[in-house]
Amino acid sequence: EKIPTISPAVEHVVLRALAKDFQQRFATIRDFAEALEEASHAQENVTLPAWPLSGQPALNTLPAQQGSQTVENATLLARPLPQAASSPLSPQPVLNPLLAQEQLDSPLTGDYKVSYANAAPKQSMQTVTGPDHTPKSISSIVKPIHQPRSLFRGKAMLLIGLALIIVMGSVAFLLSSLNNHSNAKPPVNIQSTPNIHASATASFRATASAAANAYNAATNHGVMPGFDAQHTRVNPFEKVLSLTNVSHLVQAWKVSTGGPIGSVPTVANGRVYVSAAGRGSNEGNMYALDAGTGHVDWVKPYGTYYNGAGPTAANGTIYIGSDKILYALRAVTGDSRWTGTTGGGIGTTPTLVNGVIYVGSDDGKLSAFNASNGGELWTVSISTGHSIRSSPAVANGIVYIGSDDGKLYAVEAGSGRGIWTTPTKGEIRSSPAVVNGIVYVGSYDGKLYAINAETGKVLWTASTGKSIFSSPAVADGVVYVGSNDNKLYAFKASGCGNPSCQPIWTASTGASIISSPTIANGVLYIGSDDKKLYAFKASGCGSTSCQPLWTASTGDRIRSSPTVANGFVYVGSEDGTIYAFHVPGT
Questions:
Q1: How far apart are CA 200 and CA 249, in angstroms?
Q2: How would you classify residue 331: left for phi > 0, otherwise alpha for psi between -120 and 50, otherwise beta?
Q3: 368 C-beta neighbours (distance < 10 Å), count
Q4: 342 half-sphere exposure, CB direction, 13 A CA radius
Q5: According to the per-residue pLDDT averaged within each range, which of 112-116, 267-271, 272-276, 520-524 is highest?
Q6: Is 314 a member of any domain?
Q7: How confident is the model at residue 37 (pLDDT cuts 50, 70, 90)?
Q8: pLDDT tens per residue, range 354-387
Q9: Which residue range(s) make up the domain with 449?
Q10: How do residues 49-79 score in pLDDT, each as one tens digit?
Q11: Which residues are registered as beta bridge partners of 367?
C-alpha cells in the first residue's frame, strides 16, 4: 500500500492517473472523476492491479485489452444541490443547465477528444413524508453522526492530495505526451476523415460555454430515442449545426458492426450507444463508441435484437429491451447492473421518467420498472393477443402507447390504470409524440392522428399515400412524419379547422421512409430506404414541395433514425455501419 490513508480501490485509481505510460491513464478528467467515485464505494478486499507511477518502472504487466475502470457519473465538479424528485404523475420538471463542456471534458491526453457537457446529474432523492403526507425533516428521522476531528482532517488531507495528484499528473502528461503522442496508433475498424481533429477540438472549446450544448440536460429523465419522454424528437440544445452550415456536412467517421442497424443511436457522456444485430444472427450487440472519434469503447451481447428499439441512457446506465428481458448496463463498461423480466419480447425503446422505466412487450402488456434496481412496479395487459412495438411516451403523469391491435392507449403512469382507448384502422408501430395536450401518432392505415391527450378524442387526421411506420416529430407548431409512399410530410400541429388536413409541404425521397425525423436548430434530418440521409429546412422552402439542403449516401437502407448532438449527426444503416457526420472547422 503506497498511500496508507486511503483504501486500495481509491489508491488503484490514483496510481492509474499517474501511470508512466500516458496510454494507461484516464482519457479525460471526467473518466478520472468517475473512477474515483466508484472506488469510493468499492469493497476494501477487492484485489486490483497496480499502476506504474510516472517516472517509476511498471510493477506488473497490463492485460492486452484493458477495460475501462471508470464509473458513469462525474462528481469531481460541483453540482447544484438535488431537489426532491416528483412522482411519475407530476408535471415534467424544468430542464436544468449543466456546466460548461470544457470543465467537464478537459483532455488529459494529446489524442483528439470532442468536448461534451452531458454528464447527467444524479437522480434526486424522494421527499420523505410522515403519516399525514407532509414533508418531514431529515433531522427528525436520522440522528446526526458526529465524526472525530481526525477523520475530517484526514478527508481534507485526502482532497488536497488528490488535487496535487491531478496537477502532477497533468504536468507529467504534458512531458510524456511530447515524446509519446507521435507513436499513438489509430483505433481499428474505424474510418476517419483526416485533418479535422484540431479544428474540431478548437471549435468545441470555443462554443462550449455559449452553446451550453447539453444533450442529456434533462435532470430526471436521461436521454432516449425521441430525445425526451414526450418523444418530441427535438434537440433544443444543438447550436453547432445550423441552416447556414448543414450543407457542408462530411463524414467524420464510420464503424462497422457487421449486422444491420435499425435502432436509434443515443448520445450521452461523450459516447454513442447503439444496438445492432449480430453477424449472421439475430443476437443483439450493444456498442459504446467515442462520440468524437468512433473508437469502440466496449461491445456487449444482450439477447435478441429488435429492429427499431434503441437504448435509453441515464445516471450512468444504459437500458435496452430484448427477449423477455429488460437489461440495465453500466454505461462505461457494459457490465450488467440488473435485469427485469416480461412475458414477451421487448421490441420497444424504454422510456424513463422520474426513476421509472416503461416498456411494452410482445405479449400485449405495458410494464413499469424501478430504474434503480429493476423491481417491477406494475404490469397491465392492454392488448391481449397483439404485440406492442410502439414505444411509450409519457407526459403529465400519463403513458401513451400504440399496439398492433390498431389502438392508442392512455394509462396512469403511477398505477397502470386505463384512462382511454382510441382506435385507428391499422397497426400502430409509430411511437406517439405529446405536445401541448395533443398526442400525434401514425398508423398502418396511412393516416397521422392528432388526439386530445386528456380525453382520447380524435381532433384531426391527415392521409398519406401508404402506411406510416415513422414516428412523428413536433417543433414550432409543425408536426412531421415519414410515410411508406416515399415522402416526408409537414402539417400544422394545431390542425386546419377540419377533420381532415392537408400538408404544409412535402419532400420526396427515392424509397419508403421508415426512419423518424429529428429536428435540431431549424434543420430536420431523416433517413430513407433509398440508402440516403437527408437534411431539410424545418420551416419549409416557400413551396409545397421541398428539396433537401444536404444528403449523404450509405451502403444500404436507413431505417435507423438520426441523432443530432454537439455538431454531429449519427445514424445507423442496414449495411451494418454507424455513421457520424460533422462540419469541419465549426
A1: 13
A2: alpha
A3: 26
A4: 33
A5: 520-524
A6: yes
A7: low
A8: 999 999 999 999 999 999 999 999 999 998 889 9
A9: 234-582
A10: 333 333 333 333 223 333 333 333 332 222 3
A11: 359, 379
CA distances from 230 to 112, 225, 233, 433 (A): 35, 10, 8, 6
Which set of grid coordinates corresponds to residue 503? 400538408
Inter-CA distances, 253 with 4, 250, 274, 570, Å: 45, 9, 15, 10
Number of domains in the chain: 2
Name which of 99-108, 164-173, 309-318 the model is least confident about: 99-108
What are the E-state strand segments in 115-248? 190-192, 234-235
- What is the CATH classification number for the domain harbouring 357? 2.130.10.10
Q: Which residue(s) pair with 151 in the sheet?
A: none
User: Is residue 558 a contact partner of residue 515, using CB atoms and an 8 Å limit?
Assistant: yes
Q: Which residues contact 380 (CB under 8 A, 6 or more apart)?
A: 365, 366, 367, 411, 416, 417, 418
φ and ψ of 330, to 5 deg: -70, 130
- Give the pLDDT confidence score for residue 38 in this predicted structure: 61
DSSP string covering 516-561: --EEETTEEEEE-TTSEEEEEETT--SSSB---SEEEE-SS---SP
All cell numbers assigned to 211:
452553446
Collapsing DSSP to helix, strand or coil, 474 comes out as strand
Question: Is position 322 within any domain?
Answer: yes
Share of the chain above pLDDT 90, in %: 55
Question: HSE of 64 in the Cβ direction (CA atoms, 13 Å)?
Answer: 0
